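Format notes (please read before filing issues)

Several people have asked whether sequences and structure tokens are stored in separate files. They are not. Every record keeps both together, in the order shown below: the sequence lines, then the token lines. Line labels are part of the format and must not be stripped during preprocessing.
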Amino acid sequence: MIDQSHIEIASVVGVQPRGHWYEGPCPFCGGKDRFYINANKNAWGCRQCTPGYSDPLAFVAKREGYDLNHAGEMKLALAQLNIEPEALPQRTTTPKPPERAATDMSTEYACYMPSWQAGARAFVDDSYADYSAREYVTGRGIELELIRKHHIGFNRCAYSDKWGETEVYLKRGVVIPTYHHNQFWRIRFRLMNVTDGKKYKQIAGGGNSLFYARPLVAGGVVVLVEGEFDALALASALIRAQEKTGNTKLERIAPVATCGTTQSRVMRHVVALSTQKHVLVAFDAEDAGETASRWWLERLKNSRRLVPTEHDVNDMVTSGRDMVAWLRGAFS
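Then the structure lines:
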């Protein structure tokens, strides 16, 4: 740890707190009162772009664009705080490998094969005919019209099959297909009664594709979320809001899921999202979500972070949050 006890965060930021607390506009993402300082903790944060507490060194790094994992940039940040580089602790852990860059889709995916597509289509049709999960899915705040549109179904009994040359294991659970451009790209299961936290599984051979709860429109707004249920629940909330208010502009908002924190990182998706007017990165409010958000924020100049007020977007919808007001807050 680097000793920063002698550095007052308020002086680094250039504000004067009243007592031990300060609230005001964020120097990084704007707003009116989302930025805060706790003088007792000598820490700062932003409810929008940097939730929690960070130290003075992190503020300098964010302001100047320094990477504190880079020795040279760390020294520059320390120099601004008048901390001698000799005070740096010795690295005792192996540095993490760099984030892998976006790549193009690979024809190695089995889902490109007609035999895999035929197996996927038959399985999705069969699972869609089973209504067992509909009460569960609608209970997640998802409209029935979206369940029908996306062919959300249920696989009652786990079994093995072979789609072309690909061995697949079809688990028991809610079946969530990703289908666009007349092709199944991936099929995932939302497993039931899971205790190890691994709630989602993907069928072997599936591709690495975004899940679009609504199609993109030219110059629209994308809300990028982790899971398909997040995207479908938000799309449902927007449908209900439009029916209530008659606001047709809500049709320009497209909830899109990456289907996991490290998924969908392919070049054609980065390009597609970069053509939108805004991309709001609304991954879960946890460490993995923050790390994944940075990957997209660094590659999309039209993006900004939008932190869910609960664990994830789906939880916000089911708890009755005003999702339109939440989205509007990203631009306040």
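For reference, the curators noted about this record: The chain has three domains: 9-87, 110-202, 211-329. The CA atoms of residues 294 and 305 lie 9 Å apart.
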